[in-house]
Design brief:
Shape: globular
Strand order of the largest sheet: 3-2-1-4-5-11-10
Distance between the termini: 33 Å
Helix content: 25-40%
Largest sheet: 7 strands, mixed
Number of helices: 7
Strand content: 25-35%
Oligomer: single chain
Length: about 240
């Protein structure tokens, strides 16, 4: 379900942003504060390259993987169009196709980890991220602010407008501490066209994620609530 959701979005994901290139540059600038110079980075939920391309354009060596083959393929093309290299392939973050100790930083941004709906699945992914990190490496990931969201339990998001009169909004259907998201995309051509995709998330709290990271072999992790557009978790190898 998750892979199909992002396959469906791969061709238009950039239209969520009023200026995708500006968003890439801004996010990379914020994330670079937590990524050492010269680090080899794995973006294990690279999508079409929003974070990975921006980091590559800042001089980092970045490799991308994503559950969606279409998204990973587009990331390669978009990186090349901007003059940088981004090797990327389809892969599940619970089974990363890399040798042990291959990277200095593993990045999982943009609320990607909460697509995994159980503690066992999140733990499996975090253990894989830990496995491919070199000694002294670190994990950098971001999620929605689920501490607040779990108490508020919103049913929708405000509409946002991308370039060319593209309107996006979401409806959320709650089931315990999980929710199914319906993503609506309205595009104006000769008439308005409506596309809808569905995905499911676990609204995992910061405490829950921190505990799972420790069980996966990471050291003391810190949350930065205002350094990035989502709460950012940074943890070294334990």
């Amino acid at each position: 379900m998750t892979g199909a959701f992002y396959d469906g979005l791969a061709g238009t994901y950039d239209l969520m942003f009023p200026d995708w290139d500006a968003s890439m540059a801004r996010q990379a600038s914020q994330l670079a504060e937590f990524i050492p110079a010269g680090a080899r980075v794995l973006d294990c939920a690279c999508g079409i390259g929003t974070q990975a391309i921006g980091l590559a354009m800042r001089g980092h060596e970045v490799v991308g993987t994503d559950l969606s083959p279409r998204a990973a393929s587009r990331a390669v093309v978009e990186a090349s169009a901007r003059g940088v290299s981004l090797p990327a392939a389809a892969a599940d973050m619970r089974a990363l196709p890399f040798a042990d100790a291959s990277f200095d930083v593993v990045l999982a941004a943009d609320n990607s980890l909460p697509h995994l709906l159980t503690s066992d699945d999140v733990l499996a992914a975090l253990r894989e991220m830990r496995r491919v990190l070199r000694p002294g490496g670190r994990l950098v990931l971001s999620t929605r602010d689920y501490d607040a969201i779990r108490s508020e339990r919103p049913l929708s998001t405000p509409p946002s407008v991308g370039p060319g009169r593209v309107i996006w909004f979401q409806l959320w259907h709650w089931d315990g501490d999980q929710y199914e998201l319906e993503m609506f995309q309205l595009r104006e051509a000769e008439s308005w066209r409506v596309l809808v995709g569905k995905a499911r998330y676990w609204a995992i709290t910061r405490h829950e994620l921190t505990e799972l990271a420790e069980r996966a072999g990471f050291g003391y992790g810190e949350w930065f609530l205002h350094a990035y557009y989502q709460p950012l978790f940074v943890a070294p190898i334990g």
